[in-house]
């Protein structure tokens, strides 16, 4: 369809059919939102215009469109929509992640970048991380005949490591505190993402014993001479001005979404994208830091995740410890191909069911 601007007729992106009040929302009903959006994009194009109720939303599902939004027009699209729902969710824009692009956000972002989440600060928390990783290893090593809920243990590790970095100490009533924090701020972005990444990674490794063995060999080889594993070794935006993306008009105030999940499993850019094959990154220089728009797990542009180094540091150390110290197996009667990999809906796509596994201490733990 077309709109008129100063007498010129401008081309809007294609849209699926809409209903009067709910707009395009019925197209998202019944499936996980990121799956439904990917399916719609296949039918209507790599850039399409939806309506979430009254709110116009541009969804970009190609590398080129993502680049135009997150690089060329980043200053125009870096704000967050201030709809009533967003205001409630963001406690009127006080938390950084949902704050509109402006002075309040700039100040919060500065604190994140210069203080808590700077690479220098993140490095300085290494003793906390090593300490928490050691506690995780100890709790896994405690002898028990029954399988353990690894999802829960990983979530606990991530929360303790983050809390100690932010607050200076572990909390006795951590779980209740997390429940409160999960509603807002910095902390929710930190915990869910890192714990979920670790849980999916371990689940994929359990399903792919060949990859698990390779990773164990690598980590055990690297740390063989040492006594322990050490550190040494979403999104939605809004346009504040009108602009054009791939020749299509994006009117001022349109919500703009880059479907980063769809890009990261698009066969156009990836060979067998749904197969867990970490080796695919061995021979490429592919960057995950917001420069290659088919792979932006931390976003890109002005609103790129400020907690990238913090998250990666926690994830890498925990994963290295898990595969260094233990051999892993599934509970009796569950085979690798039967492992439940169902996703659940949410800002972070969590694993629906917890990961239950058995850990056998590797010989190195005895040293
Ligand atoms: C695996 C771990 C993580 C992943 C995959 C991840 C991913 C993301 C993504 C995709 C965004 C949105 C970027 C955009 O809108 O363009 C984001 C924003 C954000 N993340 Fe993370 N994140 C992770 C860990 C963390 C951690 C550990 C922290 C804090 C300690 C954190 C704090 C934030 C904050 C504050 C924002 C909002 C930034 C803003 O709006 O300016 N994240 N993250």
UniProtKB/TrEMBL annotation:
The keyword NAD does not apply. One of its GO terms (molecular function) is monooxygenase activity. It comes from Urochloa decumbens. Heme binds at residue 305. Its cofactor is heme. PROSITE patterns: CYTOCHROME_P450. Gene3D superfamilies: Cytochrome P450. Coiled coil: none annotated. This is Cytochrome P450. InterPro entries: Cyt_P450, Cyt_P450_CS, Cyt_P450_E_grp-IV, Cyt_P450_sf. It holds the Pfam family p450. The keyword Transferase does not apply. Belongs to the cytochrome P450 family. Keywords: Heme, Iron, Metal-binding, Monooxygenase, Oxidoreductase, Signal.
């Amino acid at each position: 369809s077309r709109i008129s601007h100063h007498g010129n007729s401008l081309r809007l992106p294609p849209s699926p059919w809409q209903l009067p009040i709910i707009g395009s929302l019925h197209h998202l009903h019944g499936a996980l939102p990121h799956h439904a959006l990917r399916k719609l994009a296949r039918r209507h194009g790599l850039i399409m215009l939806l309506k979430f109720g009254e709110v116009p939303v541009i969804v970009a599902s190609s590398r080129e469109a993502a680049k135009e939004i997150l690089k060329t027009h980043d200053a125009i699209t870096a704000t967050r929509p201030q709809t009533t729902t967003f205001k409630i969710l963001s406690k009127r824009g006080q938390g950084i992640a949902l704050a509109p692009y402006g002075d309040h956000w700039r100040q919060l972002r500065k604190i994140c970048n210069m203080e808590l989440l700077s690479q220098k600060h993140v490095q300085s928390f290494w003793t906390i991380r090593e300490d928490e990783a050691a506690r995780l290893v100890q709790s896994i090593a405690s002898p028990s005949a029954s399988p353990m809920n690894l999802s829960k243990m990983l979530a606990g590790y991530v929360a303790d490591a983050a809390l100690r970095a932010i607050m200076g100490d572990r909390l006795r009533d951590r779980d209740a505190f997390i429940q409160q924090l999960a509603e807002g701020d910095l902390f929710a972005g930190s915990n869910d993402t890192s714990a979920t990444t670790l849980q999916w990674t371990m689940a994929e490794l359990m399903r792919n014993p060949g990859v698990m063995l390779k990773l164990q060999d690598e980590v055990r080889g690297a740390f063989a001479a040492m006594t322990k594993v050490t550190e040494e070794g979403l999104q939605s935006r809004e346009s504040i001005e009108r602009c054009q993306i791939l020749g299509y008009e994006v009117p001022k105030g349109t919500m703009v979404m880059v479907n980063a999940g769809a890009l990261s499993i698009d066969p156009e850019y990836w060979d067998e994208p749904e197969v867990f094959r970490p080796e695919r990154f061995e021979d490429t220089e592919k960057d995950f830091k917001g420069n290659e728009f088919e792979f932006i797990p931390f976003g890109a542009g002005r609103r790129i995740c400020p907690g990238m180094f913090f998250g990666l540091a926690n994830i890498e150390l925990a994963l290295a410890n898990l595969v260094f110290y233990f051999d892993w197996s599934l509970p009796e009667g569950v085979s690798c191909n039967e492992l439940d990999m169902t996703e659940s809906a949410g800002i972070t796509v969590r694993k629906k069911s917890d990961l239950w596994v058995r850990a056998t201490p590797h010989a190195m733990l005895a040293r």
